[in-house]
Design goal:
Length: about 290
């Protein structure tokens, strides 16, 4: 067992509600110069869940299951930023109002720009949910440290999920099961962000042939992935020999420089993280949520 400071990590209540679906009102232009008008972020999505492919949907930046926020009108104000920061992947989320009251779900990521927290709930619960239902999250994970690996940094990850991911020590390194390995040159929108405790950044998908060669067209919502030569310790940037582990949190995108989003979980500037390919490395498989319920 990898030693952590989980007994010193603060658990704090945060409360949000369903983020209503938004629309800019006009066509946008995709990476090939073609106009598109498609469903996007927000809302309760009935037919897309953890474990589904991130490709092929008639959508742009689609968020699986339930998208939530604290303040949709003031996305970048401290309260909404705090809601995103304290909500960590793997946290318990409970519906505390409405017909679905009492149903328990799991936080699966947060989406920068939209500033949404995505939560997977059982399907019978989302059938009963309304857009103004309140959701209470046990925010637990920020401040998690690996006590014997000072150069490996952890963000946005529930300590209990960390212990279930199959991560092992290998000398001064750790090995992490992942569903895919992303070359650093494929990372686009979100590079340069300093907000490691919120948001995500995108795998660029303009070159589908290259993605097929890499075996990345099989990516699913909830997959754990490794990003080569990317430093996510104090900001998102290319750095030779760095490695980052993240989770795929939203679907493919039409815009140039965009694609499926990845929320940061573990990162090191030094070559101390070794990814191990495991097609079952998905939060749904581990926690039996989404398509794996």
């Amino acid at each position: 067992m990898i030693r952590t400071n989980k007994d010193k990590v603060v658990m704090m209540s945060i409360q949000g509600t369903v983020a209503p679906p938004g629309c800019r009102g006009g066509h946008s232009v995709n990476k090939d110069g073609e106009p598109f008008l498609l469903p996007g972020t927000g809302g309760i999505v009935y037919n897309i869940k953890i474990g589904d492919s991130v490709f092929g949907w008639s959508s742009d930046h689609i968020e699986p299951c339930v998208s939530t926020s604290l303040d949709e009108k003031n996305k970048n104000d401290p309260p909404n930023r705090g809601y995103n920061f304290y909500a960590c992947v793997g946290n318990e989320a409970k519906i505390v109002s409405g017909d679905a009251k009492g149903a328990v779900g799991v936080v699966t990521g947060h989406h920068g720009g939209a500033e949404h927290v995505m939560i997977d709930f059982p399907h019978d619960a989302i059938e009963k949910m309304l857009l103004d239902d309140k959701i209470l999250i046990r925010g637990y994970g920020q401040g998690l440290k690996l006590l014997d690996h000072k150069d490996i940094h952890v963000y946005n990850l529930d300590p209990n999920l960390f212990e279930k991911m199959g991560i092992e020590e290998k000398g001064d390194k750790i090995t992490v099961p992942v569903a895919g390995v992303i070359p650093g040159e494929l990372m686009g929108s979100g590079v340069g962000s300093l907000s490691m405790g919120t948001g995500d950044y995108d795998i660029m998908t303009t070159d589908k042939k290259f993605l097929e060669e890499l075996g990345l067209m099989d990516l699913r919502f909830g997959d754990f992935v490794a990003i080569q030569n990317h430093d996510n310790v104090f900001g998102r940037s290319y750095r030779k020999e760095a490695m980052t582990i993240g989770i795929v949190i939203h679907g493919d995108c039409e815009y140039a420089g965009h694609g499926p989003g990845v929320t940061t979980l573990i990162s090191s500037i030094k070559p101390m993280i070794e990814p191990v390919i495991d097609k079952n490395a998905n939060i749904g498989q581990i926690l039996k949520i989404g398509r794996f319920r």
